[in-house]
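Hey L., structure's done. Input below.
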Amino acid sequence: MFTLLTTIVSFLSGGIPRILDFFQDRNDKKHELDMANLQFTRELELQKAGLQSQEHIEEIRLDGIQTQTAASEREALYSHDVEIGKGASTWVINARALVRPAITFGFFVILFLVDGFAVFYAFQKGTEFSVAINALWDDDMKIIFASIISFWFGTRAFGDSK
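Output:
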């Protein structure tokens, strides 16, 4: 009987640390979960109390710095153009200023003439409009057209927006 009793006590005493560890681990995990919830609640309160406005102030400062940088860059480019033109004749300055617009207008005239002739030719041959326009307005033409429009209007209208 004494052997049976010592065996049972030994068996139970070997398991007691494990049982205590189980309860301790359970309490530790509950405590960690409570701490995480408290931290989350604290972060929400801080955000409501003004942390969010501080982030907004920093965004405004960054936008101001970027605007100032863009303005100074543009001013430097303009002053560089003025320096290059000093001493040149008026027609050289005017010709130099017309290079990019002339290329752009020339491209649009060529685009209009080629596409107009192609549409006219397609209608003469009996091709459906949807087939003709897909052949004329392919991916390469879209890229070229978008590049030219972006060059002239994108840097000022969309360059600084988010």
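Helices lie at 2-85, 90-125, 129-136, 139-157. Confidence is low (pLDDT under 50) at residues 157-162.

-- N.
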